[in-house]
Amino acid sequence: xxxMPLHLDNDQLRVxxxxxxxxxxxxxxxxxxxxxxxxxxxxxxxxCELLNGPQVPDLFNTFxxxxxxxxxxxxxxxxxxxxxxxxxxxxxxxxxxxxxxKDKVKTFSDWSFSQSGNKVVLTCEQSHHDWALHLERTVxxxxxxxxxxxVLKNTGQAPIPMRWFPHPFFPHNDGDALCKINAPxxxxxxxxxxxxxxxxxxxxxxxxxxxxxxxxxxxxLTHRAHAPLVIQQRHPKLGIxxxxxxxxxxxxxxxxxxxxxxxxxxxxxxxxxxxAEEWSIDYDF
Length: 285
Description:
Elements: E1 6-9, E2 13-17, E3 37-42, E4 48-49, E5 70-71, E6 85-88, E7 92-95, E8 104-108, E9 111-116, E10 119-128, E11 131-142, E12 145-154, E13 160-166, E14 170-171, E15 177-181, E16 197-199, E17 205-207, E18 217-220, E19 230-235, E20 239-245, E21 253-256, E22 260-263, E23 267-271, E24 276-284
Antiparallel strand pairs: 1-2, 2-3, 3-4, 5-13, 6-7, 7-8, 9-10, 10-11, 11-12, 12-24, 13-23, 14-22, 15-17, 15-19, 16-17, 18-21, 19-20, 20-24, 21-22
């Protein structure tokens, strides 16, 4: 039996999403359960898989994940006096650990979803103390574009401080060029002292000291973006993949290890009661 029943498929790509209710063995306390893109297969390139992960293919685990997960876990909703119990948006009630890699799901939030053609809409209602929210995720496949849209409504009494980031995992290219963004980097964005990265003369961010190890290379990029971010990403099968965010990133780290490379354009907002936030990313493969 298929462990991943949610598919979007056309003559170009097949997108596999995790079932937020049925694939709980693959879902932990880190990544949002609804809208989790687990893999893309390219029909035009011999049905090859386009995404991977930090431990893939050897050792999948729920913290590292694979594909294009995204996360609200860095802004847990925790009441004053609660040492460890908190609501993680898109996940459920969790037991937090000082080492956030060891956070555990106590109660999974239930999702409802509907699929129409190559579009799936997943929704989740969550509440904890004075917080309540409605989360809607829409993933659409249009040609070679995968669009991920998020709406978060605050239906409770307390403001919701939100930090969200996508974490797409790309296999390494033969060359050292990794990604390029449509905004100037600050002069100190990557200094010569940075152990894993450099800004190349052509403007691409490149890897150095290759090959890296399993813990990998993490580096927050300082940028001067004033318009929604566009990221070009090198890919061994496709040449370049492009991601278009609907927002200017509030924080923008890059990370990679021996197996994979990723970037995390954060979207951070404080959502007042009765208000909603909407944002999206298009991935063009």
